[in-house]
Amino acid sequence: MTTPSKFRNVPKTAQNRLLIKGGRIVNADRMFDADIYIEDGIIRQIGENLITPGGAKQIDAKGKLIIPGGIDTHTHMEMPFMGTRAVDDFYHGTKAALAGGTTMIIDHCLPQKNQSLLEAYEDWSTRAAERACCDYSFHVGITWWSEEVKKEIEVLCKEKGINSFKMFMAYKGLFMLNDDEIYQAMCALKEQGALALMHAENGHLINECCKKMLALGITGPEGHELSRPEEVEEEATTRAIVIANQAQCPLYIVHVMSKSAANAITKARREGKVVFGEPIAASLGVDGTHYWDKDWSHAAAYVMGPPLRPDTTTPGYLMDLLANGDLQLTGTDNCTFNPDQKALGRDDFTKIPNGVNGAEDRMSVIWEKGVYTGKMDPCRFVAVTSTNAAKIFNFYPKKGVIQIGSDADLVIWDPNATRKISKDTHHHAVTVNIFEGMVCHGVPLVTISNGRIVWEDEQLHVTQGAGRFVARGVHAAEAYAKILIRDKVRVPQGVDREAYDGPVWNSANAPANNISKSAPKPTFSQDRPSTRHGHRDLHASGFSLSEMGPRYSGNQVDDNVRAKVGHKVLAPPGGKTSIIF
Ligand code: URP
Ligand code: ZN
Ligand code: ZN
Description:
Radius of gyration: 29 Å
Bound molecules: N-(aminocarbonyl)-beta-alanine, zinc ion
Distance between the termini: 69 Å
């Protein structure tokens, strides 16, 4: 596996040695009080009253929580999209993430239609390596389908450390795949042990509904939500789940924006399907009423796909599902455009570049709406902001946990402090913030990335390009353990039977496009064994159920029940019929 190598030989100084004293460590499974000693970017010791080598910088964390650094599973730094390019590049975007307590992002490398996936990956690797201030990895897009794409998926999995691929059911003509292509792509991902990510919205319907809204004279941002309402997201979510289940490929629904899409995921998980749901900071923190704001620019700032929902109880509902385990983890879909870029759609909402911010504020928004409200405890907070991402995307316990040997990506978190979110103080390149004015409990006091303090006293100390690529192997246990067992125990079995040697209808004799009225009607009465009580008499057939044991002896549950006369069976076992008896 070739991993862009960015390890440097850094001399051992106090900078490389950190001792965090007196804090309460919060992992996804438990909380406990201990000191943490870090050297060369790795957690070396955890314990009470640690004795450590001299020269280590000490940080007092008394009364504070120490949590694994946040992992943002969904960003689009500097992405070219809808006639422009996202303003948060890898530098500004990761700087903002670190200020908010996120120490790793998984960004999207989306090839253009017909572009080689490997070429797109190389381009994205160069961009991230030059600018990212925190560690990163990539989901690669499957934006078109061919045998060539299939081969490149294999190379990306086997040689480049990629194990997750994003597909789109929306953006018709740009990124959208059809169901048969999605099925084939999912089969290819399954073959490699990779995870299928899905943007689930019905692109055909969106196209038609956009035309309808524009014809009605609705050109403003509210047209965006009206043309892709909740059921359009729900239908595609369910369809993606069905296709993934047929391909037996684990599925991850990105940016869950509505109650009904979340319910579809919940239902599928309860049926045992392997599907994960990712709500984002935006869908958990704000709602879609903003699209109806009188100020065009304000309304346009919230335009993203799928849209935020005008049902104001949606964010709380998604948070409930995240807290109780029906949804598993969170990202942001950070894809930011300034007001002048959004204004590309001034006269037509379909041209407003889709995307919002979130990388800096996700941790605080989730603490505020999830922990401060009493919906989730700090351990669950860590699970949904960090640990579950590391498990699902297969880099646990390198990250996502505070334990000896793990990367020293962690945050000293003050659960009692508050901060007010604002475009004036955030560290994004974008000049608006969809969470403007929100006061959040839960503040990152210190962020440590690869053992270095990168955020302290509200000051950033980042190095452009210091972030390292995180290569990820296939067959993540979280996604594949069940599926690999099912592959062995749920193999479809054909019926071992004698070849049929009776007459076969000769279709050459049939009149074209018209079955003759005089043609003999198919009849089964002479061919089939007689029935008892209206059911086939299994004793009269050549098939002996008694050989299969007493449960299958052929006795019918209604053997002692008198047959009803004139009872119409619409859908008896074995197939639909309309025999009246
Ligand atoms: O509106 C969005 N979500 N923009 C980014 C592209 C995508 O669909 O994820
Ligand atoms: Zn998307
Ligand atoms: Zn996205």
